[in-house]
């Protein structure tokens, strides 16, 4: 139980990060809000907004799917204009 006014620890909010796998097989978690681009060289390379790069085993499509799930969980795409939907009133 969380007391009013207390912050919820990050570990209690598992949806904050997406889980990925480095080329050496070790798993890690990444905050998808900082992803700037995902490329295949052929290895999948994720570039963050701070220019850090991560090479992962997951395909570009898998990273995109996990990122979209993350956005849905935090309701970042609940605004129709951010989703790219037409004009909604």
UniProtKB/TrEMBL annotation:
Pfam families: FlbD (PF06289). Keywords: Cell projection, Cilium, Flagellum. It comes from the Bacteria. This is Flagellar protein FlbD. The lineage of its organism: Bacteria, Bacillati, Bacillota, Bacilli, Bacillales.
């Amino acid at each position: 139980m969380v007391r009013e006014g207390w912050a919820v620890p990050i570990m209690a909010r598992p949806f904050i990060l997406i889980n990925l796998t480095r080329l050496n097989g070790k798993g890690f978690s990444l905050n998808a809000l900082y992803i700037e681009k995902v490329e295949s060289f052929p290895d999948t390379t994720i570039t963050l907004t701070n220019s850090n790069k991560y090479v992962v085993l997951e395909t570009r499509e898998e990273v995109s799917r996990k990122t979209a799930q993350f956005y849905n969980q935090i309701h970042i795409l609940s605004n129709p204009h951010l989703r790219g939907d037409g004009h909604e009133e």
